Amino acid sequence: MHIGTLGFPADQQQKLARILELSKHQRYELVEFDAHTPPDLLLLFGADAVTAPELDSLSSAYRSRMIQVSKRPPIDAGLGYIRYPLISSRVIRTLDDMTSENEELNPEEQEVATAAAENRFSKYENFVKESVSTKDASGGYRVLVVDDNSSMQQALTLELGKLPAAVELAYADTGEQALEKVASDQFDFIFLDVLMPGIDGFETCTRMREITRLKKTPIIMLTSKTSPLDEVKGIMAGCSTYLTKPIDPDEFQKVITRVSGWVDEFKQD
Questions:
Q1: What's the domain range around 76?
Q2: Which residues pair with 187 in a beta bridge?
Q3: In what order do the strands lie in the sheet with 29-31?
Q4: Would residue 184 be called left, alpha or beta, if left means φ above 0 and alpha means ψ between -120 and 50 degrees?
Q5: pTM for this prediction
Q6: Could you report the per-residue pLDDT of 156-184, keeping only the tens digit for each?
Q7: Which end of the chain is more exposed for a tag (fewer CB within 10 A), N or C?
Q8: Inter-axis angle of helices 201-209 and 228-237, to 10 degrees?
């Protein structure tokens, strides 16, 4: 995917180039802007760049591919927006969101996404014949909830409280806090929000999977939407499955029963 820029100072252009290199999929390539062959997405530095004469020849439909980089949101609600100063997670997240709106999945990504949608729990089916969690069988669970929304934390606490096994909960508001907690403590499974301050859920999940003792720990990602591209990104980051927000109690209990059953089997082994 080609990313063009307009109005960027040299130092910010260099910083942007370094940020794009951090993309796990390495799909983003910084290119020089040419109005005759517009890039897939165009980043505009500052509010003044929006009225640059170089943009006059572009079609009105192309505005859905333009992103303003500034301290304040653009006046034109049709433009994408990245708040300045540039932060890697903020830039990549916005580009990924814009990409999912303007780009179809390639065949390889579509195949992965379809498999994910049809077999969300396939990795657990091999371990769990009948998922029955009891306090005697499991001895309880230690669960980490990573979400900066207090209402979401409360909703998860309520649903986890319905389990017949004892549940000990810990909370983190950011990916950085979560990484600190898993570095010093052990959890049976982890709920991880996708959109958070600082590093996002995909990056947090990837870093967690780099820790040897977390390679098999179930990580359930929480998101308000699950596009095929999101599911592919989650799978590549190492998540076990998704739950959509707001929490649907029936879906939650279905997921947690399967996951806790797998944890019970793992503990017995």
A1: 2-103
A2: none
A3: 29-31, 2-6, 41-45, 66-70, 80-83
A4: alpha
A5: 0.53
A6: 998 988 888 889 999 999 999 999 999 99
A7: C
A8: 30
